[in-house]
Fold this protein.
Amino acid sequence: MAITVRVQTEAFDATAETLAITAGRTDIGAVASFTGLVRGNDDTGALTLEHYPAMTERSLRDIAAEATQRWPLLGLTVIHRTGRLPPGAPIVLVIVAAAHRGAAFAACEFVMDYLKTRAPFWKKEEVAGTERWVEARDDDDTAARRWE
């Protein structure tokens, strides 16, 4: 089973990544994916994501490995961007391939819940000309606890 984990500044192509995970495969019966985007409004300037490269990539690989232990997956891709991103820009992509939809949906949701709470990213918002660090959200922790 192929696991792809990348942390990058460049935009990703969700369609191309989905084609890559399924190319030549007839055993895949389900693909679930999630694409996260920078939310914004008229006052939002950008979101800047910072990370510690070695720690972040290891954390994402650990999350992916745990997903493959919990569900019978046939492929998994996790791509997370860093740097300064404007509203509407894609931030994160998770693609899960499995024989059946239940495993694909569950693993995709698990990866996102753990990514939000266990991957070391720091976010700074630019809103109305000011900058502020984004605090962790309690509802993200609540969502992640259901997998324990």
